[in-house]
Specification:
This protein is an alpha+beta fold. It contains 17 helices and 33 strands. The N terminus is likely disordered.
Amino acid sequence: MMAEVLPVKTDLTTEEQVHFTWRLPNWTELGKVEHSPKFECGGSKWQIVVHPYGNNSNEHLSIYLKHGYEEGEMPDHWNTPVQFALVLWNTNDPSAYIAKDANHRFSADQDDWGFTKFRDLRRLLGYLGDRPSLLGNEEANITAYVRVIKDDTGVLWHSFYNYDSKKTTGLVGLKNLGATGYLNVILQCFYFTNAFRKVVYQLPLNDVSKKNTLLWALQRLFYSLQSDDKPVSALELTRAMGWGPRHLFMQQDVCEMIRVLQEQFEHAPEASSLETKLTDIFCGKMKSSVIVKGDEQSRLEHFLDISLNVQNISSLEESFRDYISENSNEEQAAEGVPKTKSGVTLESFPPVLHLHLKRYAYNMSQRQMVKVNDRFSYPEEFDASPYLSPDADMSEPWIYRLTGVVVHSGGMLGGRYWVFLRPTPNGAFFKLDDDRVTRAMLKNVIEGNYGGEEQTTNAYMLVYMRKSRINDILAAVTDADVPAYIKTQLAEDREAAERLRKEMEDQHYINIGLISTSSFCNHSGFDLTSSNLDHSDTSSLIPIRVRKETTIRQLGRQIGEKLQLDPERITLWICINRQNGTCRPYEPLLCPEFTAIEKACRDAGCKENKANIWVEVSPGEAGLSRPPLPQVTIGGDVLLIFIKNFDVVKQTLRGVGSIYISKGARVGPSILKAMGWSEGTRFSVHEEVKPAMILNVDPNTTFQQAELGNGDILCVQKMVKRDELPSNLKARDVTQYFDNLRNERNKQLYS
């Protein structure tokens, strides 16, 4: 009954088409979202999703088509172009229906598509008195017509979000530098003429004096297109041509630009030494003749392309006949003016034939140049022998196969170019549109660019290759065809460019190494931690990179997120490199709302956009207000002291933590409290001054008397009985422990 209601029409090849009807007998009892039973089409599962009272809107009925896969059931790389229609209709009156259709490529990222405003709810429910009401009997049917399209290009209705040309097609495009689409299509045409690419690689340009020339830039550009994974820039080539920024925004003619590049190549001294020359690939021969009063004058010349008329000519064959037809003024010649005949005779076509279609002409009525959009057909293959001189060599067939179509879209005053190219003799075409490369269907390459009335997108240049030689012209270009000096120099230049980019970028950033309580407590060497440790080491610095203008408050939030700490419990201490070679916390970073990290690092004497920061975490539970920290300032009464514990029995040294302590406090009682040892515990205290200087500290002195300051480290060791010492004792105290570390490090350095 409803099969006649199908608003979807297409001329694309389909894999499968089905329709599925979902009956909803009690509309007012439906929930906010309803899912239909699942059905299959084109090898995929589908279902209808309806929001009876709207999706994010209470004014419209919303209906969508969605995949019907359960979690984990969807095939890998599921990607399906679909044409579909959703029809809402009444069982009692099938003539009353609403139908909407759409095209969409369904994927894992875009797994549903449809109509949020399928129908105004007031009209749907009959509140406005419209007759008939589709839901007047509380019943409705929703039919989904689904047509899965067989897409040879892989990009039909593609969103191109995160599209990777190299991964999808194996090819990369060229970046548009402003208005350089015309240059990009030319370079791609030359690049995919593999015989020409090999000739370019053969040019002996390894001499330093030949660098920075157009041909040197062309070699590098071709190798980049061959080896890179991302779109390539032709900026080096344009600079070698003497172009400045303004040239990059000036539209130029494709065919004129081709001749400029060909002439540059042909006249290069290096090209004369090659066995294969430009003339062997692109040059044909023609004889121009003029007959005046029976006296014939002729001239044999080479041509790099042929310009064919398009206006009022319907096909390539007709345009060729027009090109070689004889011109005579016998009927128009005035008295006293000699009668003349002229014409051209094509003696031979080149292996690669460039045909320029004359899409621009002078309009007498408008008194200006206009674009000619007349329909002009061209075949995939044609026989060129009918257009050749009778004396031409016919020992080899003159059959030509289409391998490229340069397309122009727009008018006389502006527009854009792209190109369809066939990289292999019998392979598929690809569309190269600046930096995007996609597969193309043959009918899109040929019929889609014939032009016609009011069609401003049409073929502007055709590339044909002689079929008998096409395998040689398009022979694969491998890495072995590329001279070593091209690879080496390009790799060195890229490394230099990357270093410069990083240097420029680093001017705006500061690289910070975070010292956390965890890294300090896991550290078994000198200082709070070591910058030589691998990042996988639990005691290493934790790297973070921030912009110079980041405020201390913003930095605290970033560090809190990275270390999974409550930012309100964090106090940051900038570390300084002392003259004795140590790196210790210097002072807390105050005024967090206004002070930028760049200023804080500069004030602390940090150099080379690098700094280390001690991350102090206040005690307390996350979410609670931070307990007030002692006001630690340079020259103040309160110090930040770090404590390590040397366990002589286990022969281990580990960080314990940090304490805030008054300068006047005695060392011994403060250590007992920090370590949780009972009164009367015997222990020794040593200060880490530098690796070769571990000084004994009297526990009975005050911190001020011991000349201790912010960031100093005290190593404590509980005394044990002789029989408790291990049999393999290597260090009897922390001084000997550090001596052993230094000796071990020296052995590694000199081994």
